[in-house]
Design a protein that fits this description.
- The two termini are 34 Å apart.
- A hairpin with a 3-residue loop joins strand 1 and strand 2.
- It is built from no helices and 15 strands.
- The chain has a nine-stranded mixed β-sheet with strand order 2-1-13-12-11-6-15-4-3, with no helix packed on it.
Length: 233
């Protein structure tokens, strides 16, 4: 359903600076003319070890997930059992939030999910973007796509390879947007419109490299594939 736009947004739904910041910081340039203050809605997130798949090793500060050999995690009902995915501890609702992530992997999935999303199977109910409980942007060298409830939407590749992906969640406005961030340029990649009825948990998935005739590896570099939350200070 079409979400309403708040007074703090431009006509196309992009968030703008609604009030004077007591500690102003440099704003990114969005589409050459509009301003997007990435710090206004910045939130501090941490990865939830109780949801992390056994192939995901979390950093001590719980802001980076690396694809490695089996971890000795205890059994937990919220843990992803068959898919290399992890949720954040924080559930987001009744507000506007922004975060950024960087990664190195053959592909990565970034998005949000309700806590009710499946965890134990390898089917659509447990895969980010393949069910009604989650929304995701899938990034790879070959292309980008957005997915919700199993519906796949192609996303044009940004002209410059992004160093980060920004995620803006407007819960009361019913909007989830993904941004390509390169140097000081921010470009919107895709926006979902929905009515969010439960807290949303930032979610990440890391892809495995699969080669025909060979068993899959946990990474395709000398160092593990990873996804990492970026500091917003």
């Amino acid at each position: 359903t079409q979400g309403r736009r708040g007074r703090g947004h431009t006509q196309d739904g992009t968030p703008r600076h609604p009030r004077q910041d007591l500690n102003p910081r440099p704003a990114f340039t969005y589409n050459s003319s509009l301003k997007f203050d990435n710090h206004l809605y910045a939130c501090q997130l941490s990865l939830d070890p109780n949801t992390a798949h056994k192939h995901l090793s979390l950093s001590e500060e719980k802001r980076k997930a690396s694809l490695e050999a089996d971890q000795t995690y205890p059994s937990h009902p919220e843990r992803f059992e068959r898919l290399e995915q992890v949720l954040c501890v924080q559930g987001l609702l009744n507000g506007r939030f922004y975060w950024e992530a960087e990664w190195r992997s053959c592909w990565v999935s970034l998005g949000v999910a309700y806590k009710s999303m499946g965890r134990k199977g390898k089917g659509d109910d447990s895969r980010l973007g393949h069910n009604e409980q989650s929304w995701s942007l899938i990034c790879s060298e070959g292309g980008y796509s957005a997915k919700h409830s199993g519906k796949l939407m192609d996303v044009p590749l940004p002209s410059t390879k992004p160093s980060r992906i920004g995620v803006y969640l407007d819960c009361p406005g019913g909007m989830l947007s993904f941004y390509s961030i390169s140097s000081d340029t921010v470009k919107m990649l895709h926006s979902f419109r929905s009515t969010f009825t439960e807290p949303l948990y930032p979610a990440f998935g890391i892809g495995l490299e699969i080669k025909v005739g060979q068993s899959h590896r946990l990474d395709s570099w000398n160092e593990p594939s990873y996804v990492s939350l970026c500091q917003m200070a």
